[in-house]
TrEMBL record:
<feature type="transmembrane region" description="Helical">
    <location>
        <begin position="12"/>
        <end position="31"/>
    </location>
</feature>
<feature type="transmembrane region" description="Helical">
    <location>
        <begin position="301"/>
        <end position="323"/>
    </location>
</feature>
<feature type="transmembrane region" description="Helical">
    <location>
        <begin position="335"/>
        <end position="354"/>
    </location>
</feature>
<dbReference type="InterPro" id="IPR014226">
    <property type="entry name" value="Spore_IM_YlbJ"/>
</dbReference>
<keyword id="KW-0812">Transmembrane</keyword>
<feature type="transmembrane region" description="Helical">
    <location>
        <begin position="81"/>
        <end position="100"/>
    </location>
</feature>
<protein>
    <submittedName>
        <fullName>Sporulation integral membrane protein YlbJ</fullName>
    </submittedName>
</protein>
<feature type="transmembrane region" description="Helical">
    <location>
        <begin position="397"/>
        <end position="415"/>
    </location>
</feature>
<feature type="transmembrane region" description="Helical">
    <location>
        <begin position="51"/>
        <end position="74"/>
    </location>
</feature>
<keyword id="KW-1133">Transmembrane helix</keyword>
<feature type="transmembrane region" description="Helical">
    <location>
        <begin position="124"/>
        <end position="145"/>
    </location>
</feature>
<feature type="transmembrane region" description="Helical">
    <location>
        <begin position="229"/>
        <end position="255"/>
    </location>
</feature>
<keyword id="KW-0472">Membrane</keyword>
<feature type="transmembrane region" description="Helical">
    <location>
        <begin position="152"/>
        <end position="172"/>
    </location>
</feature>
Length: 429
């Protein structure tokens, strides 16, 4: 009875919000139109050319069985670290390359094809929901803060905190009976033998189970990807209009009053209240507003890092829409975003205090000769040129990230092996 009453209350609340928003569009038609056009420009110049190719390629790789084959090869790494199948590495890599919500699209496909359990899907979403390097280096560091060296600061804080969230969520739902049952059934049918031979057989099996001719597979990949990209674009336009309406109507100021008191208590600049609320809704707008506020730099950097990790309700709505046809829950995803945002902000402060981002003329000085060209390239929609330029000049960063993750992985694996040996010795004794 209580659950039914709660459902009725939420229905009334959502209906009231929809009516108020409709009236606001009638009162402020010009504001809504201009915000919608701005959102459409973002979709046409950035979102569609950057995400659509990745969506199509991922569908092809899934249909051809390549993902399942690589999943077998990467199982020894992903399982001990994050307690997810090896195919999770594909969601992680595509999320790194394309950003939000690529990881959710791939994870949903894994769940629909029974390549992961519900719990494993929730663990995957917890740490694969990352921003792409182009956004942090080009749009945020260069475009918003006019400082190429800050890209390394944002990227290191973002990816290290994401790794820590993945390790923490390794224990999420580990005693869930349905999860344990599915894992046991998967272990019973898993083929034995050489790792590479198993990967090859799994790839062929996945291709046979799909069964679609390549022409049909390509056509379905394009049509499904276009449908997904239109859905994402719709959310971006909608939230762009919502934020503008909230600001013009003064509602944003009312919502920000409690937050202003909290910021005042902790000595945080009051001008960051409005960008924080905007960042809760949409990360691009929130990040841009934060960079423009005349507040202490360290506070702005921590807030932007937290906003990028939180990713905004706009991205959350996209993820929820993608997960509609699965049993993966949103609650662990939202909890992971809170944890990711807090860790990213904290790591930003720590790394900045260690000199990362402040040594633009030192360790990262060579970036100044390469990255200033990114801002005009972004403005003129030169996505692929910008992406190639960024990747070709970020070798040191990626080597550093890879080395740090490899060292952490080796330490965790060694600790796990020591625990197994200690348990064996105790049992024998």
């Amino acid at each position: 009875m209580r659950k039914e009453r709660r459902g009725h209350q939420s229905t009334v609340l959502l209906a009231a919000m929809a009516v108020v928003f409709t009236l606001a569009l009638v009162i402020y038609p010009k504001v809504g139109y201009e915000a919608g056009m701005q959102g459409l420009r973002v979709c046409w110049e950035i979102i569609i050319p950057s995400l659509l190719p990745f969506f199509i390629v991922s569908e092809l790789l899934l249909g051809l069985g390549v993902v399942r084959g690589f999943g077998v090869l990467l199982e020894p790494l992903m399982q001990p670290l994050f307690s997810v199948p090896g195919v999770g590495a594909f969601a992680l890599s595509m999320g790194l390359a394309a950003g939000y919500p690529m990881d959710a699209v791939i994870t949903a496909r894994f769940r629909q094809t029974k390549q992961c359990t519900r719990i494993e899907g929730e663990r995957l979403l917890a740490f694969t929901n990352t921003a792409d390097p182009l956004f942090m280096f080009g749009a945020v560091a260069v475009g918003m803060f006019k400082s190429p060296a800050l890209g390394a600061l944002f990227a290191l804080a973002h990816y290290i905190s994401s790794f820590l969230v993945g390790v923490a969520f390794k224990f999420w739902g580990r005693r869930d009976p349905d999860h344990l049952k599915e894992v046991k059934e998967r272990e019973e049918v898993r083929p034995k033998g050489n790792l590479f031979a198993r990967a090859y057989r799994e790839m062929l099996t996945a291709r046979e189970e799909d069964g679609r001719p390549f022409g049909k597979l390509l056509g379905n990949a394009v049509s499904e990807s276009v449908q997904t990209i239109l859905m994402i674009s719709g959310f971006i336009v909608f939230f762009a209009v919502v934020i503008e309406i909230l600001e013009v109507s003064g509602i944003m100021g009312v919502l920000g009053w409690p937050l202003m008191e909290v910021y005042r208590l902790f000595g945080i600049h009051a001008g960051l209240v409005q960008p924080t609320l905007a960042g809760v809704l949409e990360l691009d707008i929130g990040s841009a507003q934060t960079a423009a506020v005349p507040a202490p730099l360290i506070q702005k950097l921590a807030l932007v890092s937290g906003i990028i990790a939180w990713s905004g309700l706009s991205v959350h709505a996209q993820v929820a829409s993608v997960l509609t046809h699965t049993d993966i829950r949103m609650r662990p995803y939202v909890l992971a975003r809170f944890l990711h945002a807090a860790l990213a902000a904290l790591l930003t402060v720590v790394l900045y205090g260690m000199g990362v981002g402040r040594t633009a003329q030192g360790v990262m000085a060579h970036w100044a000769h390469h990255l200033p060209a990114l801002a005009p390239a972004m403005e003129h929609g030169g996505f692929w040129e910008t992406f190639a330029h960024t990747m070709s000049n970020s070798l040191e960063l990626w080597l550093g990230i890879f080395a740090a993750l490899t060292a952490a992985s080796a330490a965790l694996l060694l600790l796990r092996r020591i625990r197994v040996v200690a348990f064996f010795v105790r049992s024998q004794g």
